[in-house]
Amino acid sequence: MRVSRLMLVTLRDDPSEAEIPSHKLLLRAGYIRRVASGIYAYLPLMWRVLQKVSRVVREEMDGTGALETLLPQLQPAELWQRSGRWAGYTAGEGIMFHLEDRQGRELGLGPTHEEVITYLATDLLRSYRQLPVNLYQIQSKFRDEIRPRFGLMRGREFIMKDAYSFHANEESLRQTYAAMDGAYRRIFARCGLRAVAVEADSGAIGGSASQEFMVTAEAGEDLILASSDGTYAANQERAVSLAADPISLPSGPRAGGEGEPFATPGQSSIEDLCAGHGIEPCQTVKVLMLLARFEDQSAQPLLVSLRGDQQLNEVKLANAVTARCSAEHGALLDIAPITKEAAASEGLLPLPFGFMGPHLADGLLSNSGHWTKHFLRLADRTAAELSSFVCGANSTDNHLVGAAWGSLCPCPESLDLRAAQPGDRCQHDPSQQLQASRGIEVGHIFQLGRKYSEALEARFTNEAGSEEALWMGCYGIGVSRLAQAAVEQHHDGNGICWPVSIAPFEVIVVAANWAEAEQSGLAEQLYLRLQEAGVDVLLDDRSERAGVKFKDADLIGIPWRVVVGRGAADGLVELVERSSCSKRDLPAIELLETLL
Ligand code: ATP
Ligand code: MG
Ligand code: MG
Ligand code: MG
Known about the structure:
By secondary structure, the chain is α+β, with helices and mostly antiparallel strands.
C-alpha cells in the first residue's frame, strides 16, 4: 500500500474528546473516527489491526477445535423472556438496544448471544455423541452503555469474539474452560499484551466459575486486587459480590469487635439502628447501609449498598459489623451511578467509600464500571452528618490499598467472605498485603452450568438413554477493546508502537526525498521485494519533507522503518526499530534477510 493512496489524515494536536493516551493516539494517527457517543468508524488502518487480532483469535480458537459461526444480531424478545433476562436488559438501566418490528414484535440488538445459541442447541444437539462442541463468532455487539468512553474501550457498538460450549457433564465443561484459558493466554501473548488472569464476578451473565483477563494499565476501569507475592488476583467486583451475597445470620444483628459497631445486640430494625446513632432514616431512599471494619488498623471501612426493592436484607461481612434490615424499613441512602458533573448540578456531594457499587443492587450493572464514579444521593441528610456517620470514609481514590488480608486472602478456600469470621487472617501468610492495580478487561470466560439450557429447555440424551439439560460455558474477548488496550500498553511520546503481530503494516519504506530518482527508485524496488516476500509493507511515496514522513511513521506506529536517503547511491538504507528507536545502516540487499 502507498501512503499517498491511504487516505491518511493525521492530527498534530490531541483531540479534546479524548482523555487517555490510546484514544488520543488512535484519533490522531487516523485509525478511528467518532460518529456518535460510543459509536466509532474503524478506518482502513484500524480495520487491518482488527483483522490481525481476529486472525490470531481464529487460529487459537480453531486450534482448540472450536467451530466458527455467525449468529443473528437481531434477536427476538421471546428468547430473552424465556431466559428471564428481557426485562432486566431492556428496562431502566438495561443495556440492550431494543425495537419493535412492523408487526409489533419486540426485538433486541445482541449485547451477547447465550439465548440465541441455546435456542439453536435445542434443535441441533440431541445426543451425548455430538458433545462437547464449542461455537464461536467474531462480530459487532451492541450495548447501550451507561457511560460510553475512552474510544473503543467502552463502545456502544464494538467487536467481540464470543464462544459458547456445550457439554454432557460438568467435567467436560471444566476441560473446555481450561482449554479456553490456555487459548486466551496464547492470544494475548501473541498480540503482545501483558495480561493477567483474575478471579471474576459472573455478573448478569450468571454461572459459577469465571475468570477475567486484564491488561494492566493505568487507564483501566477495573480494580485488581492481588496478593503481594503475585500468587492470587481477583477483580474487586468479585470481592464485592461475595460480600453482598445474601446469607442468613444465625442470631440476628450483632456487634463486631472493637471500634464503632453500627449494629448492637438487640437492635433489630434499621430504625433502631438509626436511633442508636441519632439519625433519622430517610423515607425517600432505599438503601441499606452497612458499616464494616477490617481488623487491621490501616484498613478502610466497607460500605455496602442495597436497593430496597431487592429482597436482599441480611448481610454479613467478614471482619465486619453485621446489621439486619428488612425491606419495609426503607433505608438511609440512595446510591445512583451518575457523573461528577451531573452530581454537582443536582447538588449532590461526592462521598467516596470503599467497596461500593450499584451492582450490589442490580446485577445488570455489575460490570458497568468502578465505584469511584458513584455518589451518594444525600437526600435530606447533610454531608456532615453522613461523614460522621460513615466513620473513616476514605477521600482518596484507592480504598483498598493496605486493606488487610483477613477477608481477601490468596488461599482460594478462605477467599469466601461469607465463611470468614472477624479476626480471620490468611492462614498461609499473615504478612500478605493486598495490592491494588488497574486493569482493562480484555477477556472473560465463564462456566455457565445449566442456567440457560434449563430455561430454554436445551436437552440431550445421555449415555444412559435419559434426557438432561446441557452443560454450558461461554468465552468472550473484546477484539476492538483489545486493539486499543495494545496501544495503551505500547506507545511513547511520538506515537503508537504496535507489536508486529497486530500492526497494520509491518514495515514502512520512506524515501527521504522522493524527488531524487535514486531514492524513490530504490524505495520502489524494496517495496516490491518486501511485498513479494509476503511482508505487509507500506511505501511513503509522498513528496513531503522527510521530517513530516518520519513523524507520521512514528505516530501510526509501524514497527520497522526503512529509510532510503543519501546512502541510496551506495546501496545503503537505514533500518529503524519503532519500539526501541534503534537505528542501523545496512546494505539494501541485506534488508530482506534482516527483517524476515
Ligand atoms: P465491562 O466490565 O468492561 O463492562 P463486561 O464484563 O460487561 O465488560 P463481558 O460481558 O464479559 O463484558 O464481554 C466480554 C468482553 O467484551 C469483555 O471482556 C470486554 O473485553 C469486551 N467488552 C464488553 N463491553 C464492551 C464495550 N462496551 N466496549 C468494548 N468492549 C467491550
Ligand atoms: Mg466486567
Ligand atoms: Mg459491561
Ligand atoms: Mg466481563
